[in-house]
TrEMBL record:
The keyword Acetylation does not apply. It comes from Rhynchosporium graminicola. The keyword Repressor does not apply. Signal peptide: none annotated. InterPro entries: AB_hydrolase_fold, Dienelactn_hydro. Transmembrane segments: none annotated. Keywords: Hydrolase. GO terms for molecular function: hydrolase activity. Pfam families: DLH. This is Related to dienelactone hydrolase family protein. Residues 147-229 form the Dienelactone hydrolase domain.
Amino acid sequence: MSISSSCLKVFEWDGTPAVNIGKIANNDAYSTGDNPDVMFLFIHDLLSWNFPNLRLLANHYARETGATLFLQDFCGDESLPFAPILRNNWHLLNVPAFIAKNTREIREPEIFEVARAEDEVQERRLGGKEQSPLVDCISAGHPTWLTKKDIEEVAVPVQILAPEIDTAFNAELKLHSFQTIPKLGIPFDYQHFPGVEHACFSRGDLNHAGEREAMIRGKNAVVSWFKQFLFETGRSEDRTSSAVWSMKFVSCLLCTSCETKFNY
């Protein structure tokens, strides 16, 4: 399916995001949307939470789903320069040092703190009566640090957006997803994006052939997925819903066995 020129024109990708900065738990957060019942957590990639394109993308997600979205800082108030990343000039960056300070082991507990804080806000609004899971569904675009164990333990509806060129979510993990998730008894949506590479869904760079179209197609897929499972699949009026849209992808968002799991 191709993306029409009109879609490219209406996509708000060259604007300036509003400054809606607050704190959730101990993490700074960009927020957009005003729905107290439906919200989702947007986990950024190497470009970090203050990359303008991610905030514009967050605005689209919130507006098109009718949800409230939180894009937290999960890099300790630090970010790499955007220009070298966008131009693939990795030799200008000390990526190993940056990653060493932002490993899964370091940042995963923060993500759970933020998710629990959001859930507590919802529970207080409902008088403390809600016992719903922290996460109702998941979408992951070019996931990083994903393991086979994560795939085997996913327990809620999950969507994976997979660029063709991706050393992180490689052919072995893609195959394992196909072979494993359909046997778990949960809704599963896998979308393949030919000719584009890891990071396409956050960059949407016109200088990379097909990347802007892939980013828009990915955005549309996520919106449709979340609208289906946060609004249309039997959610009662007296409870809230939440979701995770992850580019970095921390596996315990999917786990059913680890001590800090979401209560599915």
